[in-house]
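Shape is hard to put into words, and the shape of a protein is harder than most. The fold becomes a row of whole numbers, each drawn from a learned catalogue of backbone shapes. The outcome of that step, for a single protein, is printed below.
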Amino acid sequence: MTIIDADCHISPTPESGNSIGREELLARMDRAGVAKALVWLQPPYRRDGIEASNRYVYESASLHPDRFLGFGWADPSLGVEHAVREARRCLSDYGFRGVKLNGAQNGFPIDDPERALPVIDAIAEAGGVLAFHIGADSYNNTHPWRLAKVSDRHPRLPILAVHMGGASFDDMSDLVIEAAASRPSITLIGSAVRSIPILKAVRKLGPDRVCFGSDTPFELMHVEVAKYLTLLEGEIPPEDIERVMGGNLARILGVKAGA
């Protein structure tokens, strides 16, 4: 089985807290038996440092193209034009497969017509994949029905709903599953969320709509891999487990799971 982790963060300055750099991420991947990882920057970053962090992700993916799938990050709180420019740089100059917006950390509603939608429109126009932090830690800014509104605006835009309404002691996973049920371009990344919501999503949406993610370094990758394999064993066929553990993300990003 080829395992691809759909939620990993790295930082060019991993000297404090849970921050890690690319070499530590590789070590954790090796321990967990993870072949590839979708990698984006690790917050917090300095206000003037998002360019350096995205650049670090690009350099890391260039050094280890067989292990890292680079993904960009745009922050409208630094200015909408700046965020649009950074998104386009990530997609065109860096060749990233998509761009993530985090309305929880960066303090904006993800469907905000002035701050968020111009950036989302630019990502869609460039043919990228869009990722959102969708967590109960910022109930208003990242509410699942804001996710639904964005999907309705761009129904063909692939959207990764990271944390699928978790990332908190509270839980919005039922609302995320409901929003995704009639919007096939939304795929859930089950990181920083409890086991029962993950299983519910697999049962209600099907094994093609959920991806394994660890939220490294905020969770331990090898523990999250074991959780998923234990959770899914006996619930769905082995070939469907392989889809959840890596095949779905490979298909969405247009990469080969085992190469």
Q: What stands out?
A: Residues 97 and 254 are 9 Å apart (CA to CA).
